[in-house]
């Protein structure tokens, strides 16, 4: 889901898949690293994360490990079931988010995942990517492997797909969606609220003083 979250579900079942884009989700990883670094800079304690208790954490860990295997380690090696396996990981992540919805930021992350899922489902199981964004980002296209995004200029919900891109001169060539932005924003909120940074204390300061 952390689109960190690769994506491609039912392409082989519902319609012929377009030539895939081999996209590593490094951009979101860098964004999350920036979020983590920002916590101590704003007076938060990263050590507070150790006290955070997730329910059914095995669902998230298992889903992410499976995604890494079918997309990065063994692309095309899912015995013809890569899309179905990938779909199952989204349900696993969804179950994890529902179980932990009380944690600040996780509902925002869930919204981002839902937006990505809507784009994927409306495009026959493949996350649509703007061909112009792919070209502008300088991403090489590779056919024959399981990929998480594919160019599609006429997807029904294409505006929810990978329509944003990094500059061509960036060391990380990538495209990303509004759902990805929501996921990073949710992670940012989670980190700052759980770690008690000055940013998390702003809402309390804005409350009117009690008489």
Overall structural class, as computed from helix and strand content, comes to mainly alpha
Q: What overall geometry do the principal axes of the alpha carbons give? A: globular
Report the end-to-end length measured between terminal Cα atoms: 45 Å
Total domains, how many? Answer: 1
Strand content: under 5%
Radius of gyration (CA) equals: 18 Å
Written as H for each helix and E for each strand, in order along the chain, the element string is HHHHHEHEEEHH
Structure summary, number of beta strands: 4
Uncertain stretches of 5 or more adjacent residues: 1-24
Q: How many distinct helices?
A: 8
What's this entry about, in short?
With 211 residues, the protein is mostly helical.
Please characterize this protein's 3D structure.
With 211 residues, the chain is mainly alpha-helical. The protein has one domain. The chain has 8 helices and 4 strands. It has helices spanning 11-14, 26-41, 57-73, 82-99, 106-122, 131-137, 178-195, 198-206; strands at 128-129, 150-151, 164-165, 175-176. The strands form 2 sheets. It has a two-stranded parallel ribbon with strand order 1-2. It has a two-stranded antiparallel sheet with strand order 3-4. Helix 6 (131-137) links the parallel strand 1 and strand 2 (150-151). It is globular.
Characteristic terms for this protein:
4 strands, mainly alpha, two-stranded antiparallel ribbon, disordered N terminus, two-stranded parallel sheet, 8 helices
